[in-house]
Amino acid sequence: MTEVEIGIELTLNGVKRPSRVPPRRTLADHLRTDHHLTGTHLGCEHGVCGACTVLLDGEAVRSCLVFAVQADGSEVTTVEGLTGEDGALSPVQAAFRDHHGLQCGFCTPGFVVSATALLERNPHPTDEEIREALSGNLCRCTGYQGILKAVRAAADGERPAVE
Ligand code: FES
Ligand code: FES
Q: In this structure, which ligand is nearest to the CA of 141?
């Protein structure tokens, strides 16, 4: 039986991207499979780990819990979209690199996107607020200190070291 597909259009990392998707395809699978944006990682696929976090109309959401059709007409920013057109890392990305927030890297996109959303709405968070904002992102390497340091540095407006 042919699966029904529905036409949707996302503004994906700043570019309008029309496509057709099965109604039950998650946004995470749509990004990875149909748009090859594999920076969005899938860990639990149950809304627990935060690895699949993307920005949906500026809000950090778990893309494994959103159907692609629900995002129709929205702006979606993935970790790839945080990088400048010239390939320059965003301040949060650069701070993760500079403060050992990367580690194995699997959870990193989710942390970077969540931290970016936090600093958008609260440019000078306290440590408590940073911990709270990142509490939905799990890191199996348990390297939270480097991640906290990185977010603090990005909040302080520390500029990345020269490439
Ligand atoms: S993969 Fe979405 S929260 Fe874990
Ligand atoms: S860096 Fe490995 S799981 Fe977080």
A: 2
